[in-house]
Amino acid sequence: MVICSCARTGKSATKTDGNTAAATGSSQPESLPRGTADPDIRVEIYDPDRAYNGTTFFADIHEPGNHRIIEVNMLGEVVWEYTIPREWQRFSHPGFDVERLDNSDVLFMLPHFGVVEVDRGGNVVWTYRDPKVTHDADRLPNGNTLVVFGGGDTPEDPQVKEVNAQGEIVWSWYARDHFSGSEYQDIYREGWTHANAAVRLDNGNTLISLRNFNILVEVNFEGSVVRTIGEGILFDPHDPEVQDDGNILLADHAKPANWALEIDPDTGKVVWRFGGDRWEKQLVRDADRLPNGNTLLTGTSAIVEVTGDGEVVWQLRLMDEELAGPGLHGGDLYKAQRVGPDD
């Protein structure tokens, strides 16, 4: 299924030299903010006519002792950065989640440490300290924050919590109340469920990714599971995102390949995919549908934007995949967020 309504134009993407993307016949967006080139970051492909132009936020932990959140322009220049305080840097792995908020502040989650909000001046304006948080934190429209715990969770832990501005837990969900069968008793792989994402839906329910169970669940405010999605289809799902038509876009770690998938949750049919041998050596962690119909994908050492027919129109890569050090996945990117000039 072709998600993008635009057809192929026959134009090739711009190949860049270092951090420069000045190609004959390609025009740069007038609103492109300029920043500082970083020798470890390279934009290898950039088609300004088909990419969703804006800036990209992500956590960069490839350099020991210099873990940071950065915002880069379409050329890969750093236009904003926040260095994680040294005493917090040991909490930067795994699953360091970053989200730019509507007020331009940046919300981030440090695993087994808590959730922090900083303004653009780098000032900490809100914190929620909790050693039982990992992978995902989302600011909700009511001002509360939805947080996930899956990296080391047990049946005694709530996998999802909603906390208010005062840090009080106002809602929580326990997988043990619904998955008590024998087939779930002996599962333990970096946690019992290894829940890695939660999304509050427009209907008030919450969509939760349970990696070790290979499913997504939709739960209502009372905590009851009203729908199970992807059983027998998904393997190690990550970061589901509901589309306007009800389909779900997510990362899936099926072996030997791994993919970004869009599935129809009612039928289980896969309606779009990208990955496998088309994105060699990248473990897909995150997939976001952009306003122009393209999809932004985050791998372990690269971020790409692809069209509906799978053509790469932007690609950023960490140049030295070995910089991350022992035990990390070659740069260990986790999620990325593209923000347009009007967002």
What is the general shape? globular
List the uncertain runs: 1-26, 323-330
Which sheet architecture does the biggest sheet show? 6 strands, antiparallel
Helix percentage: under 10%
| CATH architecture designation | 6 Propeller
* Derived structural class: mainly beta
The ordered string of helix (H) and strand (E) elements is EEEEEEEEEEEEEEEEEEEEEEEEEE
Share in β-strands: 35-45%
Total helical segments? 0
Main sheet: strand order: 1-2-25-24-23-22
Rg is 19 Å
The count of strands amounts to 26
Into how many domains do the coordinates divide? 1
CATH superfamily: TolB, C-terminal domain
Mean pLDDT metric = 87
Please sum up the structure shown.
This protein is mainly beta. It has strands spanning 14-15, 41-46, 55-60, 68-72, 78-83, 97-100, 106-110, 114-118, 124-129, 137-139, 145-148, 160-163, 169-173, 195-200, 206-210, 215-219, 225-229, 238-242, 248-252, 259-263, 270-275, 286-289, 295-298, 302-306, 312-318, 336-339. The protein is globular.
Summarize the helices and strands and which ones pair or pack.
Elements: E1 14-15, E2 41-46, E3 55-60, E4 68-72, E5 78-83, E6 97-100, E7 106-110, E8 114-118, E9 124-129, E10 137-139, E11 145-148, E12 160-163, E13 169-173, E14 195-200, E15 206-210, E16 215-219, E17 225-229, E18 238-242, E19 248-252, E20 259-263, E21 270-275, E22 286-289, E23 295-298, E24 302-306, E25 312-318, E26 336-339
Antiparallel strand pairs: 1-2, 2-25, 3-4, 3-26, 4-5, 6-7, 7-8, 8-9, 10-11, 11-12, 12-13, 14-15, 15-16, 16-17, 18-19, 19-20, 20-21, 22-23, 23-24, 24-25
